[in-house]
């Protein structure tokens, strides 16, 4: 994957490690407290899995940007296995990290390992996914997750012709048969995506413009544990048999990996390439962008993980210098123990109409990546 890491990194790299040991926030770094340098301070970066391109890119981005600033990085991927992630974080703490950046698998399972971090005054930044039930999470950086769900549902409505390109109603009344998928129930983001999507679809479900043949409109019914494509494929296969034989016109999918499983089930269930329903997604993964260009998947949501990485690195660097990281949301992300101060980034709907401008012209992918 030849992502080009452009201006952001160049800009980040000219930040110096000069210290402003002003104290106040937790984990100002031993070196900061002593008025020395954080050069070479070790930062632990815990990512959930390498089964999805986006997390590999996230890990690489955060690592390379931290290294540009002179930090030493312990980057680990946990293969979507909770005990593995816990022991990786434990090893990072025992290995002397000065800060942790954690994208959790299950946001509720890290409480006791993070207590160990707290005991050693190691600040913790939740990366993309909120860590729940822990007062040890100092900061959070992510995208506006509810807005991601709104965008997914909006693109479904646009793809069906209910909304036009400006988001205005066309007067198209359907009815359209759609099925709905949600993400992993242990990922705090999944309910935000679902809530954003369902609030957008509700008026059309209520009026009958959209119908769900299976009747499965609850999060618990639609959720796919651990975001597994095969589980989504199995559920889609089942839905094709319970729906009463109607031809589906749309599928709300919250993640590109699920969309691939869903499209496979549809294809083997008798839908030819030109009669596939409008299928949404998230992450602009290469396989799905290619599928969009080929006219199979309809849309994805582009979340520029270069920017997310930059934000996490900026937070770490501020903490290491004893400064307060900048946040832009202090209300949305209550983890059950506290509202975690967050920095939210914006996402973008991508279809065949704008993928070049959004993904190629911004250097996220090259034309060759998408061939
Ligand atoms: C992320 C999404 C991703 C999903 C599956 C979520 O926590 O925010 O971008 O599609 O996990 O990996």
Automatic annotation (TrEMBL):
Location of the Periplasmic binding protein domain: 43-324
Chief location of this protein within or outside the cell: other
Pfam families on file: Peripla_BP_4
GO cellular component: outer membrane-bounded periplasmic space
Keywords assigned: Signal
Localization of this protein: Cell envelope
An MF annotation (GO) of this entry: carbohydrate binding
Residue ranges of the TM segments: none
Endpoints of the signal sequence: 1-23
Record-linked CDD domains: PBP1_ChvE
Protein name in UniProt: Sugar ABC transporter substrate-binding protein
Organism: Arthrobacter cheniae
Lineage: Bacteria, Bacillati, Actinomycetota, Actinomycetes, Micrococcales
């Amino acid at each position: 994957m030849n992502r080009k890491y452009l201006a952001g990194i160049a800009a980040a790299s000219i930040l110096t490690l000069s210290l402003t040991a002003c104290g106040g926030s937790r984990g100002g770094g031993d070196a900061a407290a002593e008025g020395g340098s954080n050069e070479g301070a070790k930062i632990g970066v815990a990512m959930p899995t390498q089964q999805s391109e986006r997390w590999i890119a996230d890990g690489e981005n955060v690592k390379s940007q931290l290294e540009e600033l002179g930090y030493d990085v312990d980057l680990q991927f946990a293969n979507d296995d909770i005990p593995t992630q816990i022991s990786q974080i434990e090893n990072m703490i025992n290995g002397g990290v000065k800060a942790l950046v954690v994208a959790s698998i299950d946001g509720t399972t890290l409480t006791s390992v993070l207590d160990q971090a707290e005991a050693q005054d190691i600040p913790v930044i939740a990366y993309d996914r909120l860590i729940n039930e822990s007062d040890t999470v100092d900061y959070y950086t992510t995208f506006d997750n509810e807005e991601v769900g709104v965008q997914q549902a909006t693109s479904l409505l646009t793809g069906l012709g209910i909304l036009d390109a400006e988001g205005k109603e066309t007067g198209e009344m359907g009815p359209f048969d759609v099925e709905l998928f949600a993400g992993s129930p242990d990922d705090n983001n999944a309910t935000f995506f679902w809530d954003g999507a369902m609030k957008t679809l509700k008026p059309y479900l209520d009026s009958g413009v959209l119908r769900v043949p299976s009747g499965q409109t609850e999060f618990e019914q639609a959720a796919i544990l651990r975001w597994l494509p095969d589980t989504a494929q199995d559920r889609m296969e089942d839905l094709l048999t319970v729906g009463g034989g109607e031809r589906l016109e749309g599928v709300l999918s919250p993640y590109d990996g699920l969309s691939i499983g869903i499209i496979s089930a549809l294809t083997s269930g008798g839908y030819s390439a030109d009669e596939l329903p409008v299928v949404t997604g998230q992450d602009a993964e290469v396989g799905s962008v290619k599928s969009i260009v080929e006219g199979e998947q309809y849309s994805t949501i582009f979340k520029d993980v270069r920017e997310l990485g930059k934000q996490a690195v900026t937070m770490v660097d501020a903490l290491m210098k004893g400064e307060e990281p900048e946040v832009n949301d202090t209300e949305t992300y209550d983890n059950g123990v506290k509202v975690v101060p967050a920095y939210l980034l914006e996402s973008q709907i991508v279809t065949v109409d704008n993928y070049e401008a959004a993904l190629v012209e911004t250097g996220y992918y090259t034309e060759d990546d998408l061939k």
